[in-house]
Specification:
Shape: globular
Helix content: under 10%
Strand order of the largest sheet: 6-7-8-9-4-3-10
Bound molecules: zinc ion
Order of helices and strands: EEEHEEEEEEE
Largest sheet: 7 strands, mixed
Length: 145
Amino acid sequence: MAITGGCLCGAVRFKIEADAPLWVRQCWCRVCQYVGAGGATVNAMFRKNEVATSGPLTDYVSQADSGSTMHRRFCARCGTPMFTEAEPRPHLIGVRVGTLDDPNLAKPSAIIWTKSAPIWAFFDPDLPQTEGQPSAPPGAQGQRP
Ligand SMILES: [Zn+2]
Ligand SMILES: [Zn+2]
């Protein structure tokens, strides 16, 4: 089974050869508030070699609050945030969950960077929270059971 998705205008599409993400986290870091239009981003992690993309992507390179150099790719035509990649972890890719054809596939299991969130942010009390950058979760090496 494959997971599919794309941007708002349809110029960028992707196909992921996996049944499920390695993990899904909601991120309230300050950069994600720009990307997420005020809210958190929700990011589903996959092995990079599972993801095939087509269409025009623009890469915005910046430093994360964690210190890592990040590549954030968005549709060159409609601007939809699509992917996030950290240089220290080149085998992984984060997919913005709003781009999945079925966002129900990617329920967050943790909330990170809560200390950067605005005072009106709501955190699901059933999910573990981390104030800043968390340690790497199981699956961070990209292994699948
Ligand atoms: Zn687009
Ligand atoms: Zn973030």
